[in-house]
Amino acid sequence: MLLSTQISAVGNIKKSKTATQAIFLICGLGISSWAIMVPFAKDRLSLNDGDLGLLLLLLGAGALSMMPLTGILISRFGSRIIIMIAAIVVAITLPLLLWMDTVISLGLILFIFGSAIGTVDVAMNAHGVQIQNIIGKPIMSSLHGLFSVGGLLGSLGLGFLIKLGLSPVIAAVTISTMLLLIVGTQYRSLLTALYEKEISDQFHSEKKSHANPKVNRQWLKGSIIYLGLMCFAVFLSEGAMLDWSAVFLKENRGVNLAFAGIGYAAFSVAMATMRLLGDKIVARLNGKKVVVYGSLTAATGLFMVVLTPWLFSALLGFVLLGIGAANIVPVFFSEAGRLKNISSTAAIAAIATFGYSGQLAGPATLGFIAHHTSLPVALGFTGFLLFVVGVSYWFKKTTDNRLPK
């Protein structure tokens, strides 16, 4: 049996799962550490808001440029080596983001950093789906939960190191060293390219997904586009919270600027908690119910935020949004890994590209809507998109969401 062979070769499948969890953690840690560095980079180069905004687009451009390519690289070399190389690039470029002294050099490093983050993101999700297929029970929600935990640790950890008296660059080097230690110690526990291929072949054998090689290259099928658009809508809501929640609370609910981040904090904590609990929820219900009920809960939360005048109800709305949206994307990634007549790596790369396009370009679109109407209308539009996700998925014919034993 392939499963027994895999356990014997790796030593223990739990080690592979733990290693995968560690990669999700360091990805969240890396990207959130950069978020704390942004003000330092802005002051170092004396950037105005407009110039900074253009620079920040390079991070997203780097990520989106590598996501489709990563699926091809994984199919050829396996996700383990891709994860290692990309994680090393993340660790090396992270302190350089505070060291560059020109706009051009910072933009170049930011593009490379974004490319590495995008590569790790696709590779770790592809690897996580393979581990999930071996174990035979949901793990994607908890993996994404560890990404969220990494985000919280990164946002707090770098600031803590600076508070201790370290310079921002030295603090960033410390974080980078931690990233290298984690990936270095966990690398050998990740699945090799050979076993990944064997697992994929066995998992899809009943569906004959490899019967026609040409079919596997047709990754822009209707099922992929649908999942991608749904991911776009859900990621857009996350981007909206990151970029617009504080502005909304300050300008529309009169919250003091020092406390305007409380909405995003409530959303983030609720999302991280629900993702860590999400595997049991998905196993007890099923993916379809999690997506439908989650989307409708998230939409209700956003409607509460924009339609009720009280701060308490707005904060409750942010919590409901985090609870509802938390496990939708992990379910979509899991479904992409089980689609008929298409490789899981190509499918995951495709929907990740759609999704992160929503997270990066979506908030700018909301800004355009807010400029011509109002910010509550723009956020309400995001709630409407989440409602559409829930309703459309309810009527969608889905495959059995249970994993094979």
Structural notes for this entry:
Helices cover about 80% and strands about 0% of the residues. The protein is an all-alpha fold and about 400 residues long. The chain folds into 2 domains: about 1-205, Growth Hormone, Chain: A (Up-down Bundle); about 220-395, Growth Hormone, Chain: A. Helix 2 (about 15-45) crosses helix 6 and helix 11 runs parallel beside helix 13. The chain is globular and about 55 Å long. It starts with a helix and ends in a 10-residue tail after the last helix. The model is unreliable at about 1-10, about 205-215 and about 400-405 (pLDDT under 50).
Throw out a few tags for this protein.
405 residues; mainly alpha; Growth Hormone, Chain: A; disordered N terminus; disordered C terminus
Radius of gyration in whole Å, from Cα? 21 Å
The end-to-end span amounts to 13 Å
What share of residues is helical?
A: over 70%
Total beta strands: 0
User: Helical stretch count?
Assistant: 16
In CATH, the architecture of the largest domain is Up-down Bundle
Number of domains: 2
Secondary-structure element string = HHHHHHHHHHHHHHHH
